[in-house]
Specification:
The structure holds two protein chains of two kinds. By secondary structure, chain A is mainly alpha-helical. Chain A has 16 helices and two strands. A six-stranded parallel β-sheet of chain B has the order 2-1-3-4-5-11, sandwiched between helices. The chains are: A mainly alpha, B alpha/beta.
């Protein structure tokens, strides 16, 4: 940009006015950013930062209010355990929300598959391992059905899964006869169904295999989303489906695969939920779909698709767990716990909107 | 948030279905059964009982159910359909004791006999009659049993109360407060859960009447005091969840769990020693009595009477336990299995 080093040849007269003009070819906007704008940029580039900060802050605040008992390794591992099932559903939900979709049927798929696994293994004498595999296949099939309705019949995801929520829910009531399968019956006939309820003791913490499974699911999905072509395609579709299609991505095929993977994850959660709940109840997790969406939103994943890290949903689920445990220990009435979660959602989405304005 | 709009949508869908079902009926004596949900075996059994009794009595019965506990919109739509179809009688388990009063008043003005099953309206005389379990008595029986079983140790008990949900419906507070009364604890306001200040109460938490809710609630209360030795639960699925929480912490033995309901899985849990005692109620009886009352009303115009000293007709409650105590009549789990529902 500077040409002072070379002695310039004397310019012709008609060029002389140019010397007085701006010689910069191009420049970045060097105007100083206010600290708030810098924070905004930082958060825009690191979407999981907000949930991480909220999680740490809420841990500190509840640690101060509720005291050492809250901060014990035991209680923290208990929170992990309590959010594990909703966390897994949130992982499945995240995949779909990243594609700018939504899945209201996640919890129904999960409970339906747990009923199928239970019926096969406990009542029909099918080996547990086989019953679980049937459940996994069923979960993927339920997701495939959602995906085909969305891509081939071209229904909006909200309507599709609102419908399949009712369908899967009715099927599970029918298959279970609205009856729970008792824990003792599972222990006697198919204890392997409760595998993820086993605990590992570690320095006072009681970590269930279910909690570890939840973390593992998040790590695997994070890897798939960020380190594989499939994952980049998923983000691309969520950001702008038409642009993704024009750049050669077979969007329908990817979308169907996303719903199948989500259905499969729900089926894995079904197995884990049997270990967590101890019995198989058609009345369990009725609000699981909404709780999973709550975790995803609090985790900073944009409902408009294409933005946010799946790890955010893990932190989102943990934030909800920390709030519930902390408020409970502080002796706060249940309705105020619900109240607090409502505000968390609104604040999370408001922050998301604010961060998005950076790119505008 | 999304929840509200989704529930509204569901309400609308259910309304559509309700309309269809209502249109299909047209016989001499029409009657409606409106239950809280189709998921709870208690209501499923009630529906079976009502359908069987209606068939026997030659009554054309239409059945409706809310989508979830607290689904007021669907129940209102169902009552509207029943009014429109000119039903002689409506049997309803109100999902909200107060919110449904205006609509059933309309139904009564339109000439229907309205009978509340299982859950009372507030005020109770909003309906023509209530056929219900004495839920306070049901709670009181398990409270007395727990106190008698502990003996002198009852003075040092540490009690966890696992209730239904944040809206504190009548069944919820009647059982909870009945249990505390039976145990010998001052309940202060008998319609308010959680206003007690007895130091033996470790805390209250809600379960939604499901095993996953029961487990989480039990874990939460154990975090407040790990030495809890008496657990009251709103129903047996919640009790099963509470037991899982205790077992996972190595407290499977030595904690008294009491419950209310008398579902077959619950009675089996008594047999297995998981639940100490439960108060059994009789949904089949409520339903069949209700149908009989509608038939009588249709034929003679006569309305059912309440049990003496109560503002409802008591369909009875029995204590089931395999560890009976003196002075509290009870039956064993083996006898209970013959009477259990669901």
């Amino acid at each position: 940009m500077s040409d002072t080093q070379k002695p310039a040849r004397k310019s012709q007269e008609f060029e002389q006015t140019l010397d007085r003009s701006d010689k910069k070819v191009a420049e970045f906007n060097v105007a100083r950013h206010t600290p708030i704008e810098r924070v905004q940029h930082l958060l825009h580039n690191n979407p999981t930062l907000v949930p991480v900060i909220v999680l740490v802050l809420s841990l500190v605040v509840f640690g101060l209010i509720a005291g050492g008992r809250f901060f014990s390794a035991f209680n923290l591992s208990l929170i992990m355990q309590q959010v594990s099932i909703i966390g897994m559903l949130a992982a499945a939900q995240s995949l779909i929300i990243i594609t700018a979709g939504i899945d209201l049927s996640v919890a129904a798929i999960m409970v339906l598959m747990s009923v199928i696994m239970g019926n096969l293994a406990v009542y029909m004498g099918v080996p547990s391992g086989l019953a679980i595999l049937v459940g996994f296949a069923g979960g993927a099939a339920a997701g495939l059905f959602n995906g085909l309705l969305i891509t081939k019949v071209k229904l909006p995801p909200f309507i599709t899964t609102l419908g399949t929520w009712s369908i899967y829910y009715s099927l599970l009531l029918w298959l279970s006869g609205a009856q729970s399968i008792r824990g003792t019956d599972i222990d006697e006939n198919a204890p392997f169904l409760k595998f993820f309820g086993e605990t590992v003791e570690l320095a006072g913490a009681r970590i269930t295999l279910g909690s570890l499974l939840m973390v593992m699911i998040f790590v695997v999905l994070w890897y798939l989303l960020n380190k594989t072509a499939w994952g980049r395609h998923v983000y691309a579709i969520g950001d702008d489906k038409e642009a993704a299609e024009l750049s050669g991505i077979r969007t329908d095929r990817v979308l169907v695969s996303v719903y199948m993977v989500a259905g499969f994850v729900c089926a894995v959660a079904a197995w884990a939920s049997i270990g967590r709940v101890g019995s198989i109840s058609p009345q369990s997790f009725y609000e699981g779909n909404l709780q999973s969406i709550t975790a995803v939103v609090i985790g900073g994943i944009s409902l408009f698709g294409g933005r946010g890290s799946i790890m955010g949903a893990l932190f989102g689920a943990l934030i909800v767990g920390v709030f519930q445990s902390g408020l409970r220990m502080a002796g706060v009435d249940v309705l105020w716990q619900v109240f607090a979660i409502g505000w968390l959602i609104i604040i999370a989405v408001a922050i998301d909107q604010w961060i998005r304005r950076v790119s505008a | 948030m999304k929840s509200a709009s989704i529930k509204t949508l569901f309400g609308a869908t259910a309304l559509g279905l309700v309309g269809l079902a209502g249109a299909a009926q047209a016989q001499d004596i029409g009657a409606c059964l409106i239950t809280k949900t189709d998921t709870n075996p208690f209501f499923v059994k009630m529906k079976e009982g009502a359908s069987a009794a209606a068939e026997e009595a030659g009554i054309n019965l239409s059945t409706y159910a809310g989508k979830y506990d607290g689904d007021v919109e669907t129940q209102i739509a169902a009552v509207e359909s029943c009014i429109a179809s000119g039903a002689k009688g409506i049997l309803i388990t109100p999902t909200d004791s107060r919110a449904l009063v205006p609509i059933i008043t309309q139904a009564r003005e339109a000439g229907s006999l309205v009978i509340a099953l299982d859950t009372q309206f507030e005020p109770a005389d909003a309906a023509d009659a209530t056929f219900a379990t004495d839920n306070f008595k049901a709670g009181e029986l398990i409270g007395q049993w727990a106190a008698a079983t502990l003996g002198d140790e009852a003075a040092n008990a540490k009690i966890a109360l696992l209730d239904l949900n944040a809206s504190e419906v009548s069944v919820d507070y009647q059982r909870d407060q009945g249990f505390l009364t039976g145990f010998g604890i001052d309940v202060k306001n008998p319609t308010d859960i959680g206003d007690e200040d007895d130091p033996r109460i470790v805390g209250n938490d809600v379960t939604d009447g499901s095993p996953d809710g029961g487990r989480t609630a039990m874990e939460n209360l154990l975090q407040i005091d790990p030495d809890i030795n008496v657990v009251y639960t709103i129903n047996e699925p919640a009790a099963a969840g509470a037991y899982e929480a205790l077992k996972s912490l190595g407290k499977g033995e030595g904690v008294l769990i009491v419950s209310v309901d008398g579902g077959c899985p619950g009675v089996k849990d008594i047999e297995a020693g998981i639940i100490g005692a439960t108060s059994m109620q009789f949904p089949l009886l409520m339903a069949s009595k209700g149908i009989e009352a509608i038939k009588t009303f249709a034929e003679t115009g006569e309305k059912p009477q309440n049990s003496e000293g109560l503002d409802f007709f008591n369909t009875g409650v029995e204590l089931i336990t395999d560890a009976p105590v003196d002075g509290i009549p009870s039956i064993t789990s083996a006898e209970g299995l013959e009477k259990c529902w669901g």
